[in-house]
Design brief:
about 25% strand, six-stranded parallel sheet, about 325 residues, alpha/beta, 12 helices
Length: about 325
């Protein structure tokens, strides 16, 4: 089957290839991929940024977001049948959405929301799961709390804005001038145009900040939190909790803590907290989120659809920051239905 694989770690490490169809285990479903989503995580995994913790065996098929049709069901699988339209973010070490077929653990799969096309559904799993796990599981966001979401027009930011608003939070975001109308339509109450203003000079007393930029942006984010507030970053630096989540040895946790020592020290001095976030696959959460999409509480935002054979070009589009808003997807089908 056709696929895009990581042959070696690094910027030029991915290529098109013909690979065998995946083996289907008792607890797996085989999905014919209709559409796959592009995520910054694809670049990070391709570049080997997590290779000490996520030990992929080279070569491996890349791709973390999938929407498609079930073509085979393992003997121990219940609730999913051949012909079902599904979406998923396959678990780590079992990714592989940039291919004609992928075998996915059934626990990571959910029926595609009825209101979404396959193209729209492929833009959802990773960012929706991340939004849910950050806001509901990690930060326990409650009505009336104040949440700052950086890069609100992006794939993750546009999803987190909507879910935070659904949870009853007052939502601020950073965006550029051309994206202000979009992020307000998604539910942002306060929009800081980062091309004109420094958010740290105009915002204060926030319960939660979601950082997707890192570096100086993360450090400034600590200063807008109220005492006891929480800054969560999806780009790092990682902490011991990340190593524990992946089941790594304790010495790796100590190493992760060294990497994040500076920002954690800054947070402590300000009386706030810092955590690194790395999402986990969950079919059950995708079912809950699917209901929110079908009820109109959430909606996907798609920047551009590339044909499947231009998957590497689609990755470059995302890497070079050419995305105007939302997610980029690659499609095997012409109309997304």
């Amino acid at each position: 089957m056709k696929a895009f694989v990581v042959e070696k770690y690094g910027k030029d490490g991915a290529r098109a290839a013909n690979v065998p169809e995946p083996t289907v285990g008792d607890r797996d479903v085989l999905v014919r991929v209709s559409v796959a989503g592009i995520n910054p995580l694809d670049k990070m995994v391709r570049n080997g940024e997590f290779k000490q913790l996520l030990k992929y065996k080279l070569p491996f098929v890349l791709g973390h977001d999938v929407a498609g049709v079930v073509t085979r069901v393992g003997s121990a699988v219940h609730g999913l049948e051949v012909g079902d339209e599904v979406y998923a973010r396959p678990r780590d070490l079992r990714i592989g959405g940039f291919a004609e077929y992928i075998a996915i653990d059934a626990d990571d799969v959910a029926p595609k929301p009825a209101s979404l096309t396959l193209q729209e559904a492929a833009a959802v799993p990773l960012v929706a799961l991340a939004a849910w796990q950050i806001l509901v599981e990690r930060a326990h966001v409650k009505p009336g709390q104040k949440v700052l979401i950086h890069a609100g027009a992006g794939g993750l930011g546009s999803t987190v804005i909507q879910l935070a608003k659904h949870l009853g939070a007052t939502v601020a975001t950073t965006a550029n001038t051309r994206s202000e109308e979009l992020v307000r339509s998604l539910g942002a109450d306060v929009v800081v145009d980062y091309t004109k203003e420094d958010f740290s000079k105009v915002l204060s007393d926030y319960d939660l900040v979601l950082d997707s930029l890192g570096g100086a942006n993360l450090e400034k984010s600590l200063t807008v939190l109220k005492p006891g507030g929480l800054a969560i970053s999806v780009v790092g630096p990682p902490d011991a909790g990340f190593a524990k989540q992946l089941g790594a040895p304790s010495f790796m946790g100590a190493a992760m803590n060294l990497l994040s020592r500076k920002v954690r020290k800054q947070a402590k001095a300000l009386g706030v907290r810092y955590q690194f976030f790395f999402m986990q696959a969950s079919g059950s959460q995708l079912r809950e989120l699917g209901a929110l999409y079908d009820s109109g509480q959430l909606r996907p935002v798609i920047d551009q659809v590339f044909p499947f054979d231009q998957t590497l070009e689609a990755m470059t589009h995302v890497e070079q920051g050419r995305t105007k808003a939302g997610k980029v997807v690659v499609s095997m089908v012409s109309d997304g239905n």
